[in-house]
Specification:
Layout: H1 25-28, E1 57-58, H2 60-66, H3 75-84, E2 86-90, E3 94-101, E4 104-111, E5 119-127, H4 130-135, H5 141-155, H6 162-165, E6 170-176, E7 179-183, E8 190-192, E9 198-199, H7 202-207
Parallel strand pairs: 1-5
Antiparallel strand pairs: 2-3, 3-4, 4-5, 6-7, 7-8, 8-9
Length: about 210
Amino acid sequence: MASRQPSPGVEETPGGRSLPEPTAYADAVGRAEPSAAPPSRHRSPEDPPPRTPAVYAHTDHFRQRLHQQGRYVSVPIVAEAIKQGQLRWNTTDGWRFALVKHGVRYVIVVGDTETQSPVVVTGWTAIDDWETARAEARWNETDLQTIRLRADLSGHRDEQIPDRIRPRSVDRAFEIGGHRVVTAAGERAVSCVDCDGQFRSKDDLKRRHCRR
């Protein structure tokens, strides 16, 4: 069931403190892949988006994320979230579908009032229940550490977070801010495997270009 009342912003979305991500809507909707779906100009932001995955186009922003290591969002997951996930309104980026599976929450942001068809704008993951996720064969420890670390970096993007980085151990590089990063337990920064840069915030990662 869709609801606009309980979640007026990121901070008030259930589990929202681990979920904030960059607002990609304004830049992304103009680059959506065309869809065969009929125009939706008559729709307003108050109208819940359709639950038919086949009518959605994909933005360039979302397609790029599908190919990045450590994202864990796939086309089948998006389809499942649209069909079965909880639909909530968020004033930062509009309608979101949220699907909890194997202890992990998948959040899919969609839009359909400024484009010719509904679009999948972006998507990300966050740990919903750590013990449940660890018990699932779907995930290994590196997967879970990656999801938690990415969520912490995105949720505190303008802050340096050495104390949140320090408990994480990620030896398989994942892409964020244009860098491929790893870290080890006890380290207070993530390190880029390509340029050897060290970073304590997402803002630092985005400000300093990788020199591969």
